[in-house]
Structure formats: structure tokens, C-alpha cells
Request: fold
Amino acid sequence: MSILRPVLLAAAPGTADLRGRERVAEQSRHARLALAMSAEKSGAVLSELAKGEHDAPLPSLGWHWSISHARAFSAGVVAQGQPVGIDVEAIVPRKQDVVPRVASRGELEILGGFRWETFFQVWTAKEAVLKKAGCGILELSRCTVVAAPTAELLVVSHRGREHLVHLLLRHRHIAAVSCDGEHAVEWSLEAARELAT
Ligand SMILES: CC(C)(COP(=O)(O)OP(=O)(O)OC[C@H]1O[C@@H](n2cnc3c(N)ncnc32)[C@H](O)[C@@H]1OP(=O)(O)O)[C@@H](O)C(=O)NCCC(=O)NCCS
Reply:
């Protein structure tokens, strides 16, 4: 069984002060740092990080990759020869009307009922599966959480298949990763690096 090594990297001090395009560019750069760390831990050598249809990452030298950026963390993961998707979100209350668009009552019941924490478990798990498929949010309504075998594992149904999603809850953030094939998951939490100048 292979080991998946996703990395959560704390945002550099000062990122929260950035605005607009500058902030997006810094988050994008930062997520690629998390990706490089995952690649190093996985023994992967990546070349160009190109993207294709719907902005989905294309494999680099046979390594699939996925990144995500949230308020205080970025996330990155690589997987050899297998599609992979990652998502990280801060657990912060949103407008209540977003809840039914992302999570049904039945899905939330599987996780013990509605709390913002369970909402973001559903949200990140679906995003991880949809990023793995390369379609993103466009197929949100075709994705369903069908089981939670453990507190850190969800089963999501999408396009007639069941997908395992591994979750991590840290510092009021939830991260989710999904990869085809059999694998164990070893998360790493990395301390902040300086902002790029
Ligand atoms: C993928 C998506 C759900 C990410 O949303 P998000 O939560 O705001 O962003 P995250 O921080 O978690 O992830 C961002 C990363 O996802 C990746 N990504 C973007 N689109 C993706 C897709 N279709 N599949 C997989 N990964 C994707 C990118 O690498 C992006 O980072 P980058 O722009 O720095 O390279 C969203 O962008 C989406 O649904 N995109 C597809 C929709 C579409 O087709 N849009 C048409 C283009 S305008």
C-alpha cells in the first residue's frame, strides 16, 4: 500500500494584510510551497505545473497534484499515477442559506447533525473528490456523502463510484484529501515561512 503525504502549511505572517490580486498571488505561491514539501516527502520530482480543462492540474512527470488555500493554511499533495484532490477550509460561520446548497439533512445526520464543523466536513470532502475528478464545483449537486466509517474518514458517492476521503481537523480548519487506489495517509503540519518579497 502506498503512502500519501499531504502537507498543511501555515500562512506566512502578513498574508492577512494583503488585499485583492496580491493576496491571491501570495496564496497561490504559498500553496505551491506546500506542494513542493509534499513532493519532497514523497520522493517526487515535478517539472512544470500545468493546468488543463476547467483549470484542473495536469500530471507532472507522472505525478498527480492538487493544492488549496484557506485563511491560515495552504495545502498541497502529490500522488504517483493516481488522481488526487485536496481542500482546506477555515471553520467560520457562513450565511445559513449556503448550508442546503452544500449539505443535505441526511448527509449532516451521518455526521451527527448540523454544526459548522460538520458542514465543512461535507464541503471539504466533496471539494476534494470534485478536484480529483477535475470538474470542481460544477458537479457539487452530483456528489453525496454516504457514510462516515470513522471520525476521519468519509465515503462520497460521485459519478456512480464511492470515493474515500481522509479528513484532518486542526486549529479550526478542516482539510480533506481523496486519492484513487489504496493508500495510507500521513498528514504533515508545517510552520509558517516568510512572505515572498
Ligand atoms: C476547484 C474549485 C472548487 C476550487 O475552489 P476554491 O475552494 O475557491 O479554491 P482552493 O483554494 O480550494 O483551490 C484552488 C486550486 O484548485 C485548483 N483547481 C482549480 N480548478 C480546478 C479543477 N477544475 N479541478 C481540480 N483542481 C482545480 C487550482 O490549482 C487552484 O489553485 P491555483 O489557482 O493557485 O492554481 C473551483 O475553482 C472550481 O470549481 N473550479 C472549476 C469551475 C470552472 O470550471 N470554472 C471555469 C473556469 S472560469
Remarks:
- The CA atoms of residues 39 and 139 lie 28 Å apart.
- The chain has a mean pLDDT of 95.
- The chain has four helices and eleven strands.
